[in-house]
Structure formats: structure tokens, C-alpha cells
Design brief:
The complex is a heterotetramer of chains A (393), B (262), C (620) and D (262). Chain A folds into 3 domains: 42 residues; 49 residues; 239 residues, MetI-like fold (Orthogonal Bundle). Chain A contains 14 helices and 6 strands. Chain B has one domain: P-loop containing nucleotide triphosphate hydrolases (Rossmann fold). A 6-stranded mixed β-sheet of chain B has the order 6-7-8-3-9-10, sandwiched between helices. The two termini of chain B are 24 Å apart. The chains are: A mainly alpha (393), B alpha/beta (262), C mainly alpha (620), D alpha/beta (262). Chains in contact: A-B, A-C, A-D, B-C, B-D, C-D. The interface between A and C is large, with 96 and 88 residues.
Amino acid sequence: MNQPATANPFAGMKSRDALRETIVRWLLRLGTFFIVAVTVAILAHIMVKGAPVAFRSTWPFVNVQFLTELPSTLHVIEDVKGGRIEVEVNRADQVKAQLGDAFHSETTISYSGGGILGPIVGTALLVTVSISIALFLGVACAIYLSEYARHGNPLIEWVRLAILNLAGVPSVVFGLFGLGAFVLTAPVFVDVPADRSVFAIPLGFTTLSFEGWDTCVLSGGFTLAFVILPVIITASEQCLQAVPQGFRETSMALGATRWQTIRYSVLPFATPGILTSSILGIARAAGETAPIMFTAALAFKDKLPWQKDLPPLPADASIFAHWEQSVSRFLGIFTESVQALPYHIYTLAAKIPQNEYSERAQYGSVFVFLVLVASLAASSVLLRKRLRAKYRW
Amino acid sequence: MAAETSVPASEEPLIQVEKFNYAYGDHQVLFDVDLNMHSKDVLALIGPSGCGKSTLIRSINRINDLVESARVVSGSIKIDGVDLYASNVDVINLRRNVGMVFQKYNPFPRSIFENAVYGLRVAGIKDRHDLEEAAERSLKSAALWDEVKDRLHEMATGLSGGQQQRLCIARAIALQPRILLMDEPCAALDPIATARIEELILQLRGQYTFVIVTHNMEQAKRIADRTAFFYKGKLIEEDDTMTIFNHPNDPLTESYITGRLA
Amino acid sequence: MKAPASTSRPSLGSLLLKKQQRPFLGIDKQRAIRLFFASNSSVAIIVLVLIMLFLLREGMDFLPTYRHELETYRRAGLEFCDIINRPLAEHQALCSKLRRAASASLNTLTHTARTRRDAAYELMREVEEETRLQRAILSDALAQIPAASPEKLTRLRQEMRAATTLAAARLQTPAALTPEEGRRLQRELTLLNPEVPELPPLLAALSADYIRVDREAHATFKPLVDAVEAFEAAPDALHTLLDAMKKHARETKAHVTELHGSGKEPSHSKPVDFDLSIVPLTSGITELTAKVEEYTLLAQKTADTMPAAAGTPQAVALLAEMRARLPDHLAAMRQAAASLPAWSHSKPVSYLEVAIAFFLGDAWITNSSWQDFFGFVPLLTGSVLIALIAVLIATPFSVIAAIYTNQFASEREQEFIKPVIEFIQAIPSVVLGFIGISLLGDAIKGVSEWGWLQWIPSFPIQERLNMFNAACLLALMAVPTMYSLAEDALNNVPRSYLDASDALGATKLQTVFRVIVPAAKSGIAAAVLLGMGRVIGETMVVLLVAGNRIAIPDFSAGPGVVFQPAHTLTGIIAQELGEVSRGSAHWQALFMVGIVLFLISLLVNWCARAFVRRFELAKS
Amino acid sequence: MSADSTAKTTPPPVVQVRDMDFCYGASPALFGINLKVKYRRVTALIGPSGCGKSTLLRCINRMNDRVPSARVTKGEVLVKGKNIHDADVDLTQLRKQVGMVFQKSNPFPKSIYENVAYGLRIHGEKNKSVLDEAVERSLRQSALWDELKDRLNANALALSGGQQQRLCIARAIATLPDVLLMDEPCSALDPIATLKIEELMHRLAQEYTIVIVTHNMQQAVRVSDYTAFLHLGKLVEFAPTAEFFTNPLEKLTESYLRGTFS
């Protein structure tokens, strides 16, 4: 200040260096935003192509037919004027009769007509089964790891190793495992064991035969459960660890047993977090295709799982018989194979020709699927944010 | 040590710490601690941080068992003649009878009422009437009743810091323990809240045997009957509070209470 | 409130002692609960073991089954035929080179005439397409029995005529034809009528012109054309003999399979006497050798008489290449013939041979009428190549993004970038696969046709669905994994390094690239490895997008190899498992592939952990 | 700039702090600091923890800039006569000429050679022989050369704690800074390593101006030429070390010194 101004001993760096600094920063930024841009572009593409299928410009704004009908074969009937009419299989003959002489030709495109109710229901069932199993096993495992396990216990090291490895197993290998384990080997109660039964244990009134569950919701659900198990375990353990140690100490200091401590002062505070994180598991389970390809999914099915032909009950059937039938109808849901959204998309993408008619079903399904999965993921993120704000201890 | 001589022979000490050595893994934190605590006394443990006083208090109700790798190297702690680390001791019962209040007030994010009766609930008491009675009694003991009686079912985390800490005390005394361990109960509180807690301790003295860890020597002077000074895991001196602060035997004690030992 | 007097309460010491516990199945309740959770926690281990177990159960029998199949292949003499057949495949490749050279040469002369003819034909087709409906109706009416009324016919003819005129009027003259010709053709096309079979005169003339030019061209390049024909015909005799042998061998094999079922021990009925059935083959060795010799001589002669000159430089190059490869081919043929006598149908197939046939086999051929081969190499190459490309693409982007968000980005940018990148994880792979089919495939193909990009090898690309396409999508899938792990690694770099570097006057960039990134490099390497694991195990994208051609990619195309289609380990399982019967060799082979995949995933995990462990060591 | 004029007059202070106030956000950390660090002398900053001595040290090379909201609110810091908060001051150049050694040794996870050469490399030095020379010189100056010359390519993290800290000093002096700031360089070391560092400081003082923060009074006596005592963010006393310790002017200083030496 009051000293004579001397040459600045700390003069800035050369402008070339500064320029390089800026350029590299911008390169990094560009690289980062490239990823973001690609993601956004893909989503936008699906949005633009798929939204018109799922939504309508008039009331009720949602394409009810697309969401509430089963998939069917699309018939495109061409009349002599070159006009084309898209109809479903049951209405095809009617339209042809109407056209009469004007009828010219007919093209059929598999799976592309109707809606996607079947796949949606199937995916919902698969996800329900898998998430129930995975949550039960995963949370129990996480509780052990977080609350009971002591460092240096060899079991724990093995468990952690196994979880890590399980998370890395390719999903198609899970599919093979599900096929071998659940579809072909899992035990069932039957009166007469099938030939392929691995071994059968006679129980007197029935036989426990290891002959598998066939491709059905249960097989697929179990397979998916093991796919998402590592996700659930890791997330649950994190949530349990996030509960302050003080709660445990206080609870124990008040004379609670270990289990009481977990039951009353750890689990209640970890549950919201566990549920939130398991939504991500749901999204993952809903998105997997390879594990259900051989265990649960069908390319086409014209019935919902509960629409089954059961022998009609006699008019004077007891209330018990009715009850029994509805129970067996309910349980039957889980022993049916189903359509599933991801497998449906695979079929639409790989098994039928690409043209303007199949595009409707393709983009529609992809759009609906993505919206479902994305809303799951987004809700989990939002919930986590809100919970984090709410449960601050 | 000085403590041995001053104990009247007639009274059996409630808590006897004998040649107690304690370690976390390979790192030993308590060395040959010998300490007797008498029924209904208020004993303050003082010493610089890391001296092992918290470890000692936390091993009296074996809450340190939760810390991995923590272990008793040798020696024993006896309450009423029962060795706490013997295999026939029920840890749960021990903790129900030796209450503890932590440095950081940590009520569960539940209602005030649920916090107050938590110990009773886990002890298996279900009768609503009993619980309400116990909650009222303990909250009154903790001088909190008047402040919270109208909002027993609001979240405990909505209380002020001092109130939360008093709630923690209420929670601890709801089980009617004989001994109350307090690990720096006022460290996270402002002076006014601290004063209220100290008041509370003075009120409750005579009903419980208090063991209080504190950093604050003035606080020790105000509330403790006896004071023990720890340094680097060793018990340096234990005596009447007045003796410790006015005529310490050990030069280390002196330099600590005069504030020279950081 | 007073505490109750201590006299009314039991002594403290007695309270502390354990009471009689109610045992629960012989253990106390707390232990039982603990055991329950402990047993649940081992579920991960159990599942891993079960996976291995079930894969092994289904796949274990593969080697014996495949051995049995290969044994049959040998006993029945199929292998014998393949000794000659396999080197003979090279003949086809050489032929195609020759043909390409010839047609390129011919093309130099016939090109104009053909383009003109094709352009005219194209115009005619356009008119026909436009008036398709009317023409079809008229034809139907004409073919009707009994014949339609003349009035109706007239009306239909008029309609057809009107439509034709309209369509012809809309035609544009293509560049290959002069405007004059265009107008003439337009006029002639107006008269196009399904009842008249003749071509419009101009079109006929153009056709004739082309035929003439073509004939002239053939005359010009007569030596070359003749050489092609001669070379093509060279192995005819050999083929005839071989086909007879193959037929016999196949019959024997069919007989065996019929008796044995698939891979099972023969139950009843007389087993095939291989010693007898092989005789027609082994007895033909002399003849076969003679035929091979004959073929080599013929082929050599053709090559010698073949002209070195051709119409285009490309054709000359093709000819030269063919000539260069011929001696090797012929030597291989002779060698194969020479090895025939040493071959024995009764030589047992060892397990080592089977393992080599699987792990090093270069062909995955299924549902073949001749012989199924389960060679692992094409699938492995596909998988590894795709994974490598994907990792190559994904690594720079994810590491850059991790560095940027961790070190440079502002809070607001971070809040935007992180969720978006994490969201990629939620996009189901089948959706990405669909994107590859519907969007990316065409986009890449379109880009490859841009003129100024033609310097890139193998541009423009042939296949919409190829390895590169799949790798791009897989890269996108790997980004979130790599990104978040790499960011963690960067986050874990101790702050003290930052202090030290800053205190020495380093700029932000220097600190980041000289200290922080090197310190995090094993963490980043682990991130890359785990990303690679994710990519190798991914199924749907490769199944949908990689093109599913089961062949070892042709590496002679250089880096352009990435634009070829391929099949993968995961894809083959997903594609074929649904269509094979349980217990067949094919089924077992697919499970074998599954086992290998499983082992690969374990290996990748192990490597990644090793990296992370090194990283953690370096940190402490 | 002052190097040539040493012979004739007392050289001007290399670092001069004038009337400086410093805040972290709203809470002030330093008030009205005036300090002149003499050329090629060791200046020690002492005081109880939290008194602001580390903050003051970090003001000299603007390491505090990295803490958001930390700023100089009044006064100025001159290094070599230049106000370092001027707009035309380049941080990297400033820090090149004002080296710093931290409390906890923090060599990079690179080879010993690369650690020492780091400062030169980032300032654009690529010539291998220059680098070699500088590495040898700084390792010699920091008394590490004889121990390490055979394993310059070993990882620096494999060295002992004391060696690591000396390596950090070597790294700091490799760029030939005018000032060397040391933030409790020995607090994480054992006595023998401490002794070596102190010896080193004596030797370095012949070529560098050193400012050292220390907790250890004896160390200040042993190594420094001048001592500054800070208390609650204020500079209480600044004097030649001999005077400071034998005949402090301020009462506060006296009681602080007595408290520690009693």
C-alpha cells in the first residue's frame, strides 16, 4: 500500500496455460453432458413415438383400450380402393363381409393388436412374488449382518463374499438356475409323481415329489427374487446402519434384549428406508427379461392368469365348495405362466417384422413399460429425499 | 490409595471395581483400576478426554459389550458382591437395575410417553394403567411432568435439548434402577439446561447411586460427594470431592484441576 | 416421588443373576432368534452353491454326451468325409473371388447398358405397382369362368387404362435415360396392359442392347470367364464321389441314432456293425485320393491359364489374391487325401479331444442334418469383443463424468447430472435393445454412408445389427456402474493429498490429474472391471442387437471387424434354450455355456475385489 | 528481492501482516493481527488450541481460500512486499513461493523421486537433469539423501513417519520457496523423529524464512528466533524467543508460560 509498487512477484500464469485449463474443463464437461444428452435423447425418442399410443387427445386422454385389452394378432385388411383397415382377429371376418366385393387382401401381424393388459398383469404378479421373497430373505440377512454379526466371524466374510458374487452373476445364468431349480426340480405335492421327478417322498395321503413347478409365476418370481436379493440386502443393511448407534445403546441400557432392541428401536426407524430402497429392487425385477424367459414368460397368451376354466359347480354346491374353488382359483394364479412386459417387448422387437403396424404396439409397450419403471425409480428417489429430511436424528 | 483409608469399615461398598483392566482389541484403556462406590453416593469421574472414565462407566452396565473387540483383560467389577462378568449374570437384568444416561440426549423418534415407558414395555409390562402411572412417576421425578403432561403423545424429538435429556433421565429411572450412570449428561446442553439437570441430580440424590462422568470440574464440585480422577487409563486419586479439589494428594491431580493438564 | 425403601426390594445382587430360562427347542429364545437370522443370512451362499449345483446337474453330462456324439460321427464315417470336405470349403471362397473378379471386369463394359435397361424396367414396375389393383381386378375378371360380361370388361379396361395413363404421366425420367427416351417410354407405358404380354418396344430394345453388350463383354473377357467356369467345375467329380460317401455315412448315423435314442445305451435290437458299415468308405480311399489329385491338377491348370489382366484394378487384386491362396489350398487338399489311410473309425474319442472340441472348437452348428458341433470359440469371441468395445467406449465417458462431477461441477450441475446417470440404471435392458433395433441400427448405418466418413474401414457397413451397435448400448448400460464406483474412488482420496498439492501451487487441473486420479486409479480400475462384468453378463441387448451370426468375426477386416454381426454366450442361451429338448447334447451344451459364464463372472468379481483391496491398502 | 540487500541493512520483513481481521462466515477467528516475519529467521506461533494460530499460518499462503465463506475482512497480508489478496496475484505462484508442511505427513502415493519433483513438474519443469539436481538438493537439505538415495523409486508411503514428514519438507523446498510454513510438523511424530526435524529446521533457517505453528513450548524455545503468542484470535505478544520466554511483557503470556512449565 504505502510501499513503492514493486514488480509483482506472484504474476499470473501464462495465458496459454490458462487457456489449456479452460479447454480441459470444457472437454470434461462436454464428455459428461454427452452421456446426459444421450440418455435424454433416448427417453425423448420413446416419449415422442410412444406417448401418442398410450394417450389420446380426447377424453379420457388415456388410451383405455391399449391398457385394458389383451394382446392379439393384428389384421390389416386392404380394400380395392387401397384403403387399409386395422382390425383384430375376431372382427376380421365381419369387416371382410362388410367389404364384400371391395375386399382385396389381408395381412396379419402377430402380437401387435389389442392392448398390453396381459403383460402388465404378468409383470405385476412376478414382481409381487419376487419382492415378497426377496424382502423377507434380504431384510433377515441384513439384520444379521448389521445387528448380530461381529467382525472377524468367518461366516460373515463368506456371506459378504457371496453377496458380492451373487450381484455379479449374469441374469441369464439366473435364468438357467431357475429353469433347473424351480421349473424342473422344486418339490410339489402330487398324488402320482411324474416320470421326471428327481426323487419322491411318499407322505401317505400325498407325495412330495421333486418334479418342478413348470414355467409359472412362482418359478419366475423365485428366480427374480434371487436376482434382486443382493440389491435388497445391501440397501437394507445401509438403512439399518443409518439408525444411530445411540438408539441401540439406550435400548440395551434400558434392559432390552437384542431382539427387543432390533424390534422396537432399530427396525421401525429403518423400515421406511428399506421400503424405499426396495422400490429400486422392484424396478430391477420388473426390467429383467433373461431370468423369466425360461421360467415364467410366454410370448402369447389369450387369457389372464385367473381366467381359468374350472369345472362349473353344481347349483346346490355348498358355500365351502365355492370358497374352495375361489381359493384354488387364487392359488392357481401363481401356477400359471404369464406374459410379461419385458418379454413382450422382446417378442415385438425380435420376432415380428418391423413395419408401421407393429410400431404402434412396440413403442406403446416400451413407453408404458418405461413409464412404469421410471416412476418406480423416481418415486424411490423422491421418497428417499423426503424421508431423509423427515428422519433426521 | 487415599480412597481405601477413608471408607468407613461398617458400610459394604455397592460397586467394587477390583484390579480392573480393560482393552479394545490390543489397545488397553484401563489399567488396574480399584474403586469402591457406596450406596446413595454421587461419584464424579473426572479426567482429560481419553483417560478411560467413559469406558469404566460403560462397563458397569456392560453396555460396552456392544463395542466390537472390547474385552475385560483382568480384574472384576462387583455389584452387591456379584461379579458382573461372571457367566451366571443376566445382562438384561443388570441393565434394568443399572440405568444409564448418555452424553448425547437420544430419545427415540416416538412419543414422549412411549419414550418414558420404553424400558417397562421391553420388560414385558403391558397393562396400560401401570404404564401410565410409571410414566407420570418417572416424568415427575425428572421434573418434566409439568412441562409435558399435556402433550405426552407428541414426538419426543420436538422437545428442547434440556427437556430431551431430562426425558432420557426419566426413561432411565422409570425402571427404578438402584444405580444411575451418567456419561457427561450435560456436555451437549446449554448452561441453563445444565443447571436444571444438576438441580435434578441434587433432588434425586439419596434415591439412587449416581456415577457421573464429567468434563466440567465446577459441576463435579457442585454435585458430587466423591470424585475420582483418571489419567491415561489409571485411577490417580479418589476421595471426598472437597478433599480432591482443595488438597489433592497427587501432583497430577493438582495440575489437572488447576487447568494445566490439557 | 420417593423410591421404595430398599428393604422392600430384593437385594440387588440377587436380581442380577440368571433366572431359569424357558428353553426353545433346547436353546434359549435369544439364541433361537439369532440363529434364525444367521441361517437367513447364509441364503446368499446357499443360492450361489445351488446355482453351481443346478448348472452342473444339467450341464455335467455334456462331455460324455458330446463324446458319444463325436464317436458316432467318427464311427459312421462322417468324420472321414469331413477330412476332404473341410479343406474343400476353401474352393468356394476362391470361386467367389474369381466370380467377383469376372463380374467386376464384365461390369466395366456392360454397366451403362444395364443401368439403362434397369432404369426403364424400374419405370415400368412403378406403373405396374401404381395400377396394381386395377390390373388385378381386370385379370381376375378375364380369368373368371364363366367369362364376365363384355360391358363389365370394357368398363374395367377403361378404368385400368385411365389409371395407367395417370401413373405414366407422373413418371420422372431417370438420369440414365435421355429425356427423349423418357418421353417415349412414358408414351409406351401408357399402353401398358396385362392382356398384352409384350414389353414396350423401347424396353425391349434396351434389353436386347444389354444382351448384346453382355455377349460382347463375355467375348472380350473370354479367358477369364472360361477360367471361372473351369475352376467351378474342377471339383465336380470329387463332389459326386464325396456326396455318395456322405449319403452312406449319414445313413449309418441315422441308423445308429434310431437305435440309441439320444446318447443312451442301446436297449435292444442289434447294434450297428461299424466295421462293416465303414467298408464302402475306406475302400474308396484310392478313388478318393485319385479324385483329389485330379481336382488339384485341374485347379492348378486353370490358375495357370488364367489371365493376369482384368477389367478393373480391384479385379486384378482379387485374381492375384486367389492365385496366392491357391497353392496352400491345394497342398491342404493333398495333405488331407494323404491322411485318409491313417484315419480309423474305431479310434476312441478321448475326453481331452471332446474338451478341445468344445473349448477350442470354431463352429457352433446345431440342428444340422450332417453333424452338430458345439464349439465355444465363436461365442466367446463375440462376447469378449463386444464387451471390450463397450468398455472402451464407456470407460472414458464414465471416468470423465466422474472426474467432472466430483471435482469440477457446481452443486447445481451435480444435482442434475447424478440423477440422470443413475436413472440409466433403471432403463430395462430390453428397452435399450429395442432402441438398438429401432433407432441406433439405422442411425449407425446412415452415418456410415456419409461420404466424408468413407475412410473408416468397412464403411459403409452392411448390417444394421452388429457388434458395434450392441457395444454402444452396453456402454450406456455400463456407464452408471462405472461412474458411481469411479466417483466413490475419487471421493475416497484423502484430503491431505489435496492440501499438499494445493500448497505447492498446483492448479486445480494439475491436482486432479497428477494426484487425485492416480491415487484413485485402482478404484477406477475396479470400477471398469465391474462394468465389464456387467457388460459380459448382459443378455437382452446382445440378443436383440448383436446380429446373432454364429461365426468367428473376420479379423482380416481390421478394426472394421466391429461392424460385423456376432453371437454371444448369453445370447445363445437365451435364444436357443427355449427350443431344445431337455437332456439333449444341445441342452447340455447350453448349460455348459452357462457354467462358463458363471465362472467368468466370479473371476471378474474376484479381480475387481483384488483391485479394490489394493486400493484400500494404498490408502491406509 | 531482499536477498541482495542483506549485507547492508536489516532486510525488510518477508511476511507482513497488518491489522488483519479474519472470519469464518459470520464468526471472527482473528482480530487485528500485526506480525512481521523476519528474513531467514524461524518464527514460532504458539497458543492454546483454537487460538487461531493455524488460521494465521494458512492466511500467509491463502490456503484458507479453499474454505468457503472464510475471508479476510480487514487489513492485509504482504508477502515480499506484495499484498497477496491483490487481483493480479496468482495463487499457484504464491504457493510456489510460500511452501507449506502439514501436521500430518501427506506424501503422495508415488515414488520418493516423484514426490519431491512434483512441485517442479507442475510448474512446468521437464528437464530431467534439472529435476534430478533439485531432488538431490532438497533431499540433502532435508537430510534424507543418505538414507534414500538408493531407493528413490520406492513408494513414499513405505517410509517411516519421520521420514515421510522430512520428505514433505523436501517436497516443499524443492521449488525454492522464500517462506516455509509448518503447521505443527512434529505433533504426529515420536521424540526421535521430532528431534531430527528440529535439527533440520535449524539448518533450513539459513536459507529459508520459516514460520512454524507448535503446541510444544520447548520446541519453540529450541527452534525459533522469534515467538508470537496468540490467544482467542488476538496476537498477545511477539518478541525474540529468548526475551519472550525469560521476560514476557504481557501478563497473559506469563501465566500461559507458567501454566505449562510448572
